[in-house]
Structure formats: C-alpha cells, structure tokens
Design a protein that fits this description.
By secondary structure, the protein is mostly helical. The chain contains 17 helices and two strands. Strands 1-2 form a two-stranded antiparallel ribbon. Helix 8 packs across helix 14. The longest helix has 33 residues.
Amino acid sequence: MATFYALTVPEFAAELGLSGRDVFDLEWRLSAGEGALIAARTGLSEVSLQAMTYSDYVPDARIMVARKNRHRCVKCQGDVQRKAIALPWTFRCPVHGVELCDATGATVSNMLGADRLTKLESCTGAGVAVLDAWARGVGQAALGPVEMLACLTARHRRASPPNVSEQPRMSLEARRDYHTFLTTPIVRQALAVIVPEYDQAAPVLTKPVRLGLYGLGQGALLQTFALTIGISRIAEDPVTQAIEVLIASDAGGQERLRDVLKTWPLSLRRRISARLWRAERDEKEREIAEKATRRLQSHNLRYVSSHQYRYKIS
C-alpha cells in the first residue's frame, strides 16, 4: 500500500497515525481501532484489511511468516510481496504457477530432479494440507506438525564425517587438500531416514536442519520441502515411520527418539512398542543371514589362480 501512494513504509505508517508501530506486528494482528483508522484513511473496508493479515493463524505459526517473500517467483515483479509466498510450505507462485527459487536461482526440481519431484507431488500436497490446517487451528489432533517436526529433526545417530556415498570422487592429492571437509562431523537426523530423497540430494554440509519449528520456519528451500514431505509421511503412517527411524538409530539416538515420542498419543506409542520388537528381531535375522552369506563367499575356492608357484613354495 505504501508503494501505491509513492511513500516509504515509515512515511505511510506516520500518515496513518501509526508512527513507530512495527509493520510486521500490524501484518500479524490488526486491532479493531487500528483497522478502523487505516480504513478511514485509505477507503478500504476493515474486512479487506483483516484479510491482508495473518489474524486467522495460531500463535505458534508466527515463526512461519517471513517479513518478506521467503522465496521468489521469476515472473513476479521484485517489489511484489504476496501473502502466500511468505509461508515456508509454498513452493509454487499462486499467480503464475511456476516453481519458486531461492537466492541462487535454484528450484526444488533443480536440486531433486524433475522425475523425483513428480513422484513426490502427492506427498507435497498432503503435507501442505496438514500444515495449512494446523496454522489455522483447524482439525487439531494429538499428533500435529509440532510433534512431527520434533521427530524429524531429532538426532538418531551420533555425528560422523561424510561416508563414501556422500563424498565426491577425488584424487589422493585432492583428498589431502580437503582433509578438513572429509573429517568434519555431520549431524545425523531422522529426516534423512524418513525422506531418503533429501539425504541423496542435499549437500552433505547443509543436511542438518534447525530443531523443531525453527527448521521449517527458517530453513532453506530444499530443507522446508523435505520437512513438508516428512510431515505427510508421518501423518499417513506414523507407526511405520517411527519404527524405521528407531531401527536405523544407535543406542543414544533411540533414547533421544523415545523422549520425543513421549509427546505422541499413548495409542500410537503402544502400537510402536508392539511392533518394534518384531522389527528388531527381523533386522537381526537379516544381519545374521547376510553375515553368513559373506562368510561363505569369502571361503569359496578359487579354481583359477593368478600366480603359478612351484610345489611347496609360497
């Protein structure tokens, strides 16, 4: 509105009699007196003004609202700030339908791949629906995004340097030059287990996300996309996802995850406990069978020798 009147935001607020007020506070909640004051000076109705704010959002969702557009649309004007784009679970421009890009110009399809993104479209829609309902206080359940995000961002294993699959191909000389990178401990979170697509695509040093709501509210484009996918998968089958993370965890990680799961409904925790021991038994049997197979393969006789030795001489 300030741009429309060819004023800066502080000048426009002063003209409205709101000098010194934080504009972000006005966008979040607009009192009846403030709404009437702005309506009288601009000619807009109070209903229209309230629709510009986030007054229908629950207080916990305030951290999700960016002060400016979180990411940008290449077809929108630079000074246009849309209400929907300020939310971290918006990945397409609501007007042009194109993918949003980050500060470097990269989109989710650039980082994940177009084929992988197409397969995840249904998960994305389900996660966005869950988050929209939570932000507006609709359909609140015992297991909501707050509890899901605490699980997704929990450390399920101790920090460790990049493994072989995470390291780029390097010569011996390059490995000496990048010794610090190859020995840097990386935080291992449950997000990588529940959303393996993120684990495969994200740069190794930027894989860890902030804990809880901060991970979604202040994360990068790929991180917020992965957290949205994780929320949809937990919402669809929380028991299976929790068991998979517990199986993949070390002793310390299992203890941390059990503390996180205490906030989940008792009925879900009972189902997780009932199925976990079976899953652990199956995993142990699989490891034993795999170890036995490797042992047999290592003892197979070689019928063709690469070297010929004289009798009784090695």
